[in-house]
Amino acid sequence: MFTGLVQDVGVVERLVPGGMTDVWIRTSLGASSFTHGESIAVDGACLTVVATAGDTFQVQASPETLRRTTLAAFEPGSRVNLERALALGDRLGGHLVLGHVDAVAEVLEKRTEGGSLVMAFALSPALAPFFIGKGSVAVDGVSLTVNDLLDDRFTVALIPETQGATTLAGKPVGSRVNLEADMIGKYVARLFSLRQAAPAGLSEAVLAAAGFTSGRGS
Asked: Model pTM greater than 0.85?
């Protein structure tokens, strides 16, 4: 579990493709203190630390991860947003982020407004039901507020702090980013769709079939 508050911008040092793609990333977070097997969000994708050496740590990306995220485009020198997993009792400053990327979207527009940088991203019909105006979204692992919401796009505004502390301000129009819709919104949309499919209302059997309960009663 993450918050979408980026802790460091790391740099990809090395990649070795194969059945699993090995990725080495340099960070200022103190990689030597990372625990083998802990989770870390890399541009919003939850990955597992498998080794550390000095200020560098290694993660592995499966073929599914490469298909569903922007990680396949990484190369030595790529700058990436990093966040270590949330510890129980930590302050939740952003929103609940799982690190499970829902879609890859294109940067459609960038413009300045006051001191903010407004960015527009493409929004697919499949993901649109999970978005609301002034709701939350994680873009490359950064917790942001949806400003304007249209049928095929949404905008966010990056304050100077976010511009300087993440990679988003350096993304040109046409580049691709990882999106994760708000977790609560996804559950609400799922429950609503089940209710629409069951005119008599939600039953314990319907909820169990969808994985929300065990179906064994209380």
From this structure: yes
